[in-house]
Amino acid sequence: MLRMRLACLLVLVLALAVAAPSVGAPIRGGTLNLVTDSDPPSLDPHKTPSGVFVHALLYDTLVTADKNTGNFIPELADSWTIGADGRVITFKLHPGVRFHDGTPFNSQAVRATIERLINPQTAAPGSSWIGPIDRVETPDDLTARFVFKQPYAPIFSSLRIVFLGMLSPAAIAKLGPNYGQTPVGAGPYKFRQWIPGDRIVLDRDPDYAWAPKFYKNRGAPYVDSVVTRIIPDESTRVIAFQRGDLDVLPATPAAQAQQLIASGKYQVFRTPQDGGLYLGLNVTKPIFSDIRVRQALGWAINRDEVVDYALEKLAVPMDSPLAPTIWGYAKGLKNAYHYDPDRARRLLAEAGWKPGPDGIFQKAGQPLAFTVWTYPLETNVRIAVVVQTQLKKAGVRMNIEQIEPAALLARTASGAQDAILISYGWPDADILYYFFNSGRMASTNRVHFSNPDVDRLLNEGRVTVDPAKRLEVYRQLQETLLEQAPWIPIASPYTITLAQPWVHDFYEDKYGDLLTDDTYIQK
Amino acid sequence: MHRYIAQRLLQLVPVLLSVSILVFLMIHLVPGDPVQVMLQDYGSAEQAQALRHTLGLDRPLPLQFGLFVWRLAHGDLGRSIRTGRPVASEIALRLPYTLRLTAASMVVAIALGLVFGTLAAIHHRRLLDYAATVVALAGISLPSFWFGLVLILIFSYYLRWLPPAGADTAGSLILPAVTLGTGAASIIARLCRSSLLEVLRQEFIRTARAKGAGELRVLYRHGLRNALIPMLSIVGLQFAGLLGGAVIVESVFGWPGLGRLAVDAIFNRDIPVIQGVVLVAAAIFVAVNLCVDLLYALVDPRIRYV
User: Fold this and answer.
1) What percent of chain B has pLDDT over 90?
2) Residue A328, by phi and psi: left (phi above 0), alpha (psi -120 to 50) or beta?
């Protein structure tokens, strides 16, 4: 009898083993439900100031970044060579690639894309990221040669960004300025539908066969479609995710993320951002024209406390204007600030400030007080409040004013602000060129900082092609900026993305891109 | 009657013109430059200048406004600075959603308002009256973003009856309509109560009762019908409140209506879209109030329009 039962059990186990899919075998089909907070202005990469992950699913770029190392690896270009003077880069293109409209991807498409990007009529927000390009030559169908007016070292960081996603010349001619309404790319998913304010629907491109080599699946994605829901309210997004309406919840704010992580129900992706939040001091204001006051603020801020209390430990403290994940970040900078309130007080005393009866430093009857402008975002406001408390302990009064982005951009251009507390993100140290170049006072140089050494280093960083020499340039630049203290770096938050347990082989790379080519759904 | 309607429609022209001037001036008083928002400052000064020229933003303000009015007179609301799409198409995509939401909210508001108001009036100074008054007060006082989230938590998260966001199923409309309609329902309930109490004290009600009419007949045929007239004008005004409230409710529930289009446009200083949305909202408001005025004649046969 026992033998009979064992035999039955064995048959049952074998039957189940045959019937069930093998563990880890990807399953074709289904829909991957994602979410974002607002409509992109356009699905045309040349018409949007900040790419969302939807763009990255539609468009492939010449190079991409390895999901593990972050190094640049081929995507639509199989290989490249850089000329001796650093002005010419020759790309060998991947053969057999087709856009979603069926037309071939070739060197003419590369040239058409770049020419459209830099055409002033296109008014592409990302046009400056291609640098001083002169022309794109097309010696043959599968060779594209970028010729620059002068070497432009950060080019590879730009090339992997979706602003430089390749466009179909036939679709450019056909759709003109309406490219973004029915976009055509060469990415793993093609466009199906966009209901503004509600959803964007993409379908897998069955002919896709040129995924980067870090994917297990080099062919068409496993899921049939990707639906990106547009839900502005953070709490509603979280509830929709908890209900299972959404498969992935990208870029979750720290306060909500901590609660979801603690539940232990979801896959969690903590990606260090290639940027962070900083306190930018307008050096033209009398209070901040004294370098000692600026430096004192650097010593008075306890970054670890900011990370713990304002960012729920989901961030790293920043000891440089560059976040640790940005190319060019230098470890162990000697001018880096750490929490030292006594040193802050000493510097203020040296600058002629004396503690007043309320504990706030004073000079000539004026308190050491300033107003910081920040966006009305939960993360920014929480950080501002913690910093405010720390500065008060050090004898500095900081008032907080929340200003929406368009007004802040306009008002800081004229230099009306005392200080700002905002964030930035870019994968290459060249971003500092925009923030500190004396030629960009009325725009991105919001601290109105001007220093000939910094200008020189910023320019050297752009044209130095040798990576080791370039790193040294940026190390010097970071030391100078820390010493001059127009910015007080604070923290670099993680991007927190959560996925349901039934989503398999989903990744997020260090740039915050959602990598879905291997992804399959198994509920 | 036709002459009256034509007159009212003609009045629309100065109203819309005034609204356009006000909105135009207000947009330009608020700090913020659409070109700066689009290029995020990373573009060159030449690029910004070229874009400003293409969009016509480098022209003097009176000329910009004149061109806007000229195009408007030809039925052209211009193109969105942010998306490049015609403003009329942007509005046409979103307007049906907002109309659906406001209409459903109005139904919720009227139904709840009449029921609570009537119950309160017929149970004057009794427990039900006080309870209805407290509920109405709470309905007016609750901020819609909070009330909406509470409804989502109960009906979407715990009970799982209704979706928390979107507009793809019939059930998607219920929570936003209830959220938006509750405030208006409270106001209608309070007005219905006082108006009905006023009517129920009239002589003709006593006469009706003396003639042996049943209490229900007295209430509905003689009471409510006469109490409706002052309520109609409030219902018309509430519609404007609902259009304004839709801005918040649409954001909470991810409802793809005009309110969210307006918010996105304001944050991005998308001047043509802001102007277009405000004009359409103003036109709807005027049209709804015209309909309300015409309804007076239906409710009260003594009113005639000449």
Assistant:
1) 27
2) left
Report pLDDT digits (tens) over A70-117. 889 999 999 999 998 889 999 999 999 999 999 999 999 999 999 999
Look at A233 and B82 and tell me if their CB atoms are within 8 Å: no
| Helices then strands, each counted (H, E), chain B | 13, 0
Alpha-carbon distance A16 to A14, whole Å?
A: 5
With beta carbons under 8 A apart, name residues in chain A contacting B145.
233
Q: Do A406 and B149 touch (CB under 8 A)?
A: no
Nearest CA to CA, how far is B252 from chain A (Å)?
A: 5
Please check whether residue A109 is in contact with residue A169, taking contact to mean a CB–CB distance below 8 angstroms. Answer: yes
Residue B134 backbone dihedrals phi, psi, to 5 degrees = -65, -45
Where on the phi/psi map is residue B214: left (φ > 0), alpha (ψ -120 to 50), or beta?
beta
Euclidean distance between CA atoms B49 and B60, whole angstroms: 15
pTM to 2 decimal places: 0.88
| Token pair belonging to A178 | 């309406």
* pLDDT tens readout for residues B148-178: 999 999 999 999 999 999 988 889 999 999 9
∠A346-A319-A425 over CA atoms, to 5°? Answer: 130
Beta carbon pairs, A and B, within 8 Å: 149
Task: Answer yes or no: do A410 and B31 touch at CB < 8 A.
Answer: yes
- C-alpha B22/C-alpha B26 separation (Å) is 6
Helix axes A378-393, A291-300, angle to 10 degrees: 110
